[in-house]
Amino acid sequence: MAKATRALGTKLMKDTQAIGGLTSIGGIEITADEIDVTTLDSDDGYKEFIGGFKDAGEVTIEGFFDSENDGQLAMQTSLDDGEAEDYKIQFPTKPPTEWNFKAVVTGFSVGNVDVDGNVTFGATLRVSGKPTLTVGTGGEG
User: Fold this and answer.
1) Total-model pTM
2) β-strand pairing of 49-55 with 31-36
3) What span, in angstroms and rounded, lies between the C-alpha atoms of 78 and 102?
4) 26 vs 30: CA distance, rounded Å
5) What CA–CA distance (Å, rounded) separates 98 from 89?
6) What is the pLDDT of residue 112?
């Protein structure tokens, strides 16, 4: 039977600061470009490829806006600065597991509201460089 882990307790950290009030953290999805190396000598008329540059994509976050949450407010500052900064997604697994990555904030929103809803918050982080998935060797998740 597959072992599933409940997502409750998953955190997004900017350096050592938690981004609070989140209801959704998009995952890192790594893709690779393909380079066509087909020649007139390729076997049986099939195309041939090698791997090219890799891209770790974007991490989108959504939640409820909290004007007192320094982590949420830091997202706008990061967008304005335009610098790649350190982030991590910590999963509540045993052993502990986390993605460590650098990202540039490319989107920030506050205020998608409905009559019977909450004030929302969202941001988009563009992963820069190679992310690292780390699985601990023990301890609490």
Assistant:
1) 0.87
2) antiparallel
3) 12
4) 13
5) 5
6) 81
